[in-house]
Amino acid sequence: MALHLLSLVATASAAALAKNSLPCDIYEFGETPCVAAHSTTRALYANYGGPLYQVVRDSDGSTTNINTKSRGGIADSGWQDTWCAGTTCGISMIYDQSPRGNHLSRAPPGGFKGPELNGTDNIASAVGAPVLLNGNRVYGVFVSPGTGYRREEVNGTAVGDEPQGIYAVFDGTHTNNQCCFDYGNAETNALDTGNGHMETIYFGDINGMGNGKGNGPWIMADLENGLWAGSKEGNDPGVPSVPFRFVTAVVKGEPNHWSIRGANAASDRAMSTYFEGERPKNGYNPMKREGAIILGIGGDNSDWSQGTFYEGCMTEGYPDDSIEDAVQANIASAGYDIAPLMDGPKVSVGSTISFRAGTSGNNYLAHDPHAGNISIHTVTNGNSADEKKAASWRVRTGLGNAGCLSFESVDRAGTFIRHSGFKLQADKNDGTKLFREDATYCAMQGFSGEGTNSFRNWGYAARYFRVYNGFVYTASNGGPREFDTKVNWNNDASWTVVDGFAS
Ligand code: AHR
């Protein structure tokens, strides 16, 4: 009875604390302080008024910090919009708000190489994951395959079998079944050094390295060489699929004991425990954590996954459930909600359009008459009806995300503009997730006054429709491929949307 009362008192005071405190204040109250606190959306300490993240501007390579708008407040995304206007920006650093200085930056090559020329991973587009916090637009970290952040020289994170806690808020609808969208504790050399050398939250729908109930996505633990939904090898049906748009995920561990917890980040006042029990066999007890921090990749830099991260912390010590419940109550009060993905002159679903390359002339994006190739064709009213149709596209709701658009060929029903190897072609919709995402583009502002619009791929958020040597690609401004060159980017990646030549 006395114990019960004590825990009631603890729960009540933790809930009261949640009103005026942010997640790391609450963990501190619970005597499990944050040793890493990352967020591009808001402060995680009521007293924090410094930089949340750094963006790099692709036009000139310069960087700026995005700070909180006020102490304990949300990100000053307006400064990002001003700084990045007319070009593209990436998130080059996610600052650690804790006193430990565990900032995250572009992940180096490890057991697997990233897509950049020197084998590093990509950084996230600064505009891939707009989100509302109590009605104000800020940005999350949109991880496309090949994107990853890491810190190898760390301060204060758990090593070996020391207790630790982790929570993160993710987009519950941006996932895939590839390895490994992780946030947490991993190897210091980016190599797979064996079972138990990492302990991160994993979020996604991989089937085969361990999984939960239904079709996913699942919150699991990446403990190295396996994603764990419990302590049994393979399926552990106790862990549910998570149906929420905004997900709070927790993985925490202490000697021979660990838990997976979750919540609807936007509305739940507490978390649910999905698993609690002993460590898996075969090298996971005791744990051999190394203490590095990863985001968006596996321990050995496996970088084929997708996901969106908004905020997260790692703690010293194993947090009490009631403390995490208070953290969740604070997350709910932050008011995570869906923001519009497009940001430019409206391109209306149902209309028929043609894409003029740049601002003037008669060069249009068109498919070849007898093949799916897409290239730039010269089209005027004097062209044949077939040639005009090949340059005309019906605007559809995005196949891969309803907040963006897909473009269906006027003369080939069911055929859409998509990228393959990042080159555009017109292909029949095969119904796969890959096709739907390859065929989904968000209409944005044209660059630096060129054209009316640019078209950003939803799945690879740093990549836009871009003319190069007469063909059209899904290119990134200064990325590793030839067609990613910065030279002439603003003109090559800006389009004037006009009424379709044919309907
Ligand atoms: O444990 C799953 C993955 O396996 C790890 O993230 C990676 O290091 C290894 O390939």
Structural features:
single chain, 503 residues, mainly beta, 9-stranded antiparallel sheet, 32 strands, 13% helix, disordered N terminus, binds alpha-L-arabinofuranose
Written description of the protein model:
- This protein is 13% helix and 35% strand.
- The protein is mainly β and 503 residues long.
- Helix 1 (2-20) packs parallel to helix 4 (321-334) and helix 2 (23-29) runs antiparallel to helix 4.
- The protein is elongated, with a radius of gyration of 24 Å.
- The model is unreliable at 1-6 (pLDDT under 50).
- The protein binds alpha-L-arabinofuranose (AHR).
- Alpha-L-arabinofuranose binds at residues 179-180, 192, 209, 222, 224-227, 298-300, 302.
Helix and strand arrangement:
Blueprint: H1 2-20, H2 23-29, E1 34-39, E2 51-57, E3 63-67, H3 77-84, E4 89-94, E5 104-106, E6 124-125, E7 129-133, E8 136-143, E9 149-151, E10 164-171, E11 182-186, E12 199-204, E13 218-222, E14 227-228, E15 246-254, E16 257-264, E17 272-277, E18 292-295, E19 307-316, H4 321-334, E20 336-338, E21 352-357, E22 363-367, E23 374-378, H5 385-390, E24 393-397, E25 405-409, E26 415-420, E27 423-428, H6 433-438, E28 441-445, E29 453-457, E30 463-468, E31 471-476, H7 489-492, E32 495-499
Antiparallel strand pairs: 1-19, 2-3, 2-4, 4-5, 4-6, 5-9, 7-8, 7-20, 8-19, 9-18, 10-15, 10-19, 11-12, 11-18, 12-13, 13-14, 15-16, 16-17, 21-24, 21-32, 22-23, 24-25, 26-27, 28-29, 30-31
